[in-house]
TrEMBL record:
Pfam families on file: Ribosomal_L31
Record key words, sorted: Ribonucleoprotein, Ribosomal protein
Membrane-crossing residue ranges in chain numbering: none
A single GO cellular-component term on record: ribonucleoprotein complex
Entries under Gene3D superfamilies matching the protein: Ribosomal protein L31
Single GO MF annotation: structural constituent of ribosome
Family designation: Belongs to the bacterial ribosomal protein bL31 family. Type B subfamily.
Superkingdom of origin: Bacteria
Organism expressing this protein natively: Fulvivirga lutea
Complexes and interactors: Part of the 50S ribosomal subunit.
Name by which UniProt lists this protein: Large ribosomal subunit protein bL31B
Length: 80
């Protein structure tokens, strides 16, 4: 195997911001944020808007996501 061509595969905390649910799994995702986990160690943190804890399919509840604000922001940014 060649050296220094593989991404860093490590434990990462994912934080669902809409339901304040956190879970740890392994990932190669790059992030600059870190967070202290229940075991006292510090791990990289990735914030997500929807996970199984807040997705309507898994919870059975309706979820309102502000997509209009994102579309307007995109149009404003890339308007010619």
């Amino acid at each position: 195997m060649k050296k220094d061509i593989h991404p860093n595969y490590r434990e990462v905390i994912f934080h669902d911001t809409s339901s304040d649910f956190k879970f740890m799994t392994k990932s190669t995702i790059d992030t600059n944020e870190t967070m202290k986990w229940e075991d006292g160690n510090e791990y990289p943190l990735v914030k997500v808007e929807v996970s199984s804890a807040s997705h309507p399919f898994y919870t059975g509840k309706k979820l309102f996501v502000d997509t209009a604000g994102r579309v307007e922001k995109f149009n404003k940014k890339y308007k010619k």
